[in-house]
Amino acid sequence: MAEEEKEGDARKTQLEVSQEPKPSENVKEIGAALKEGAIIDEGNVKAMKLEDEKEKKNAIEEKGAECLPIGPPVDKNKGEIVKGDEKGDFLVLPSNGNVEENIKESEKSEGSSLTSSPKGEEKSESPSLMKEENGLHSVLREYEKKALKGLRSILEEAILSNKLFKEEVKKEEKKELSHMENSSDKKEESKKVGEEGGDKDNLKEDGESFVDKGKSKVEEEGKKAEKEVLIDKDITLWGVSLLPSKGDKGTDELLFKFLRAREFKVNDAFDMLKNTLEWRKGNKIDSIIEEDFGNEYDSMSYMKGLDREGHLVCYNIYGVFANDDVYNKTFGTEASRERFLRWRLQLMEKQIQKLDFSNGMSSLLQINDLKNTPGPSRRDLRLATKRAVGILQDNYPEFVARNIFINVPFWYYAFNALLSPFLTQRTKSKFVFSRPSRVTETLLKYISIEEIPIHYGGLQRENDPDFSTEDTAFEATVKSGATETIEIPAPEVGDTLIWDLTIIGWDVNYKEEFVPNDEGSYTIIVKKGRKINWQEESIRNTFKNNEPGKIVITIENGIFRKKRVLYRYKTKNPSASSS
């Protein structure tokens, strides 16, 4: 019995040894399985047979490594698509004698965020989730990170399996069907030629053989063309690669926009992204930049400066439509309305071109000036606005950091209530409304006074030779019922003093004087005292002194609210500059 047991153990040991995978075993079949998206586990690795052991051994001796063609690699545990090598063509595995272990090691070295970890092991973070502290992912909550990983995984699989654009697949199938129909027609013609020539049987066989060969060749070329044309790993949106495994710094920022727009519901965000791509293709949005609209819309919108967070600021002027000629030219016909809409989309595309997805600064601040805007009776304007808002909301998610409406008339609040049901809650949460008397105060919450145009109560002027946005303004406070003075020194004779000043809310008494240092000299009135209301623009003035002294600005606040005064000044000395 003891001898039989020893003999049985020896056979068992021999059987286990014989089942161990050999170096470079089943390399071709593993590569083929990976190409087909198969799940590679211990069972089917051991079950595969070696086809050309001698060739593989020679490769090991020459190169010391196994090269497995992959496309795309898959997670051996769950079959999820994972990131391949940088070229996307070959995965080089060290020949350590165990193919399965080689695959494990390659997955670890790739560090893909989409590879699932076995139970009991800690999941590795995506490289994009391990950015510096000021990056996108340093401030994400866990559910946001999970949603982003999920969308990356779905998108990667969709691109690499040609499922992002369904229409292209259908077109390719139609082409293949057309080729098959043509082949059938040729077959019928061959039969007729055979009957007419008297050698019916031979021609029939030759015709069938010719058609079959042609048909198979067409099918092979069709499949080859489908793979070459439809598998587009370089697909981009707004200049950002959509294939997560390419490692584009802006990919996560772009995908995060769609997630935020759909409240981090991965499938909804993916559907929104697909619909956006289909809409862009159907409306030729990628080439809309090249369309020429002349300068007829220039007065309706322009870009100017940055907000406090670094977002580009876009001003939209709706008051131009108060002019009947402009209104009729823009909205008078269906063609003119469509032209205006395409111009508006072109403007959005141009604005996006100036954004940077890699540093998180990928949204705009919109200022909508409703001063003198035509009332709700202008139906065409109302419908065009509604349509434009819908298109921008569905296809440009999270590109507006804040939507500020200034100089809002009372009737617009009723119009906004009618429009509100068609907007998402997140879109509505970005709206800010300001009455005419509160414009500067509202804008100042989001934009520095140096960046706000003068007609909105700021200090920014077109082509200003004296000041730039780098010239920081000072601030003073005038309490209710109090009087404050601001002094600008002029110690040198011949100095030219320049100053900018704005008061938030205005409705104050204001005057400017030059007070000489010499007590025996007379005070010079630079600007007579008068009451200034909120409808006036910022003040700029200059004064050239003939003796040392100072400019004294007096502000008297006679109402119950305190006032904020923002000002800046410069002193120019011609003699100093000439020397």
From TrEMBL:
<dbReference type="InterPro" id="IPR011074">
    <property type="entry name" value="CRAL/TRIO_N_dom"/>
</dbReference>
<keyword id="KW-0472">Membrane</keyword>
<comment type="similarity">
    <text>Belongs to the patellin family.</text>
</comment>
<feature type="region of interest" description="Disordered">
    <location>
        <begin position="175"/>
        <end position="219"/>
    </location>
</feature>
<keyword id="KW-0131">Cell cycle</keyword>
<dbReference type="Pfam" id="PF00650">
    <property type="entry name" value="CRAL_TRIO"/>
</dbReference>
<dbReference type="InterPro" id="IPR036273">
    <property type="entry name" value="CRAL/TRIO_N_dom_sf"/>
</dbReference>
<dbReference type="InterPro" id="IPR056794">
    <property type="entry name" value="PATL1-6_C_GOLD"/>
</dbReference>
<keyword id="KW-0963">Cytoplasm</keyword>
<feature type="domain" description="GOLD">
    <location>
        <begin position="471"/>
        <end position="571"/>
    </location>
</feature>
<feature type="domain" description="CRAL-TRIO">
    <location>
        <begin position="290"/>
        <end position="464"/>
    </location>
</feature>
<dbReference type="InterPro" id="IPR036598">
    <property type="entry name" value="GOLD_dom_sf"/>
</dbReference>
<dbReference type="InterPro" id="IPR009038">
    <property type="entry name" value="GOLD_dom"/>
</dbReference>
<dbReference type="InterPro" id="IPR044834">
    <property type="entry name" value="PATL"/>
</dbReference>
<feature type="region of interest" description="Disordered">
    <location>
        <begin position="51"/>
        <end position="136"/>
    </location>
</feature>
<feature type="compositionally biased region" description="Basic and acidic residues">
    <location>
        <begin position="119"/>
        <end position="136"/>
    </location>
</feature>
<keyword id="KW-0813">Transport</keyword>
<feature type="compositionally biased region" description="Basic and acidic residues">
    <location>
        <begin position="75"/>
        <end position="89"/>
    </location>
</feature>
<feature type="compositionally biased region" description="Basic and acidic residues">
    <location>
        <begin position="101"/>
        <end position="110"/>
    </location>
</feature>
<dbReference type="InterPro" id="IPR001251">
    <property type="entry name" value="CRAL-TRIO_dom"/>
</dbReference>
<keyword id="KW-0132">Cell division</keyword>
<dbReference type="Pfam" id="PF25099">
    <property type="entry name" value="GOLD_PATL1_C"/>
</dbReference>
<dbReference type="Pfam" id="PF03765">
    <property type="entry name" value="CRAL_TRIO_N"/>
</dbReference>
<feature type="compositionally biased region" description="Basic and acidic residues">
    <location>
        <begin position="51"/>
        <end position="65"/>
    </location>
</feature>
<keyword id="KW-0446">Lipid-binding</keyword>
<dbReference type="InterPro" id="IPR036865">
    <property type="entry name" value="CRAL-TRIO_dom_sf"/>
</dbReference>
<feature type="region of interest" description="Disordered">
    <location>
        <begin position="1"/>
        <end position="26"/>
    </location>
</feature>
<protein>
    <recommendedName>
        <fullName>Patellin-4</fullName>
    </recommendedName>
</protein>
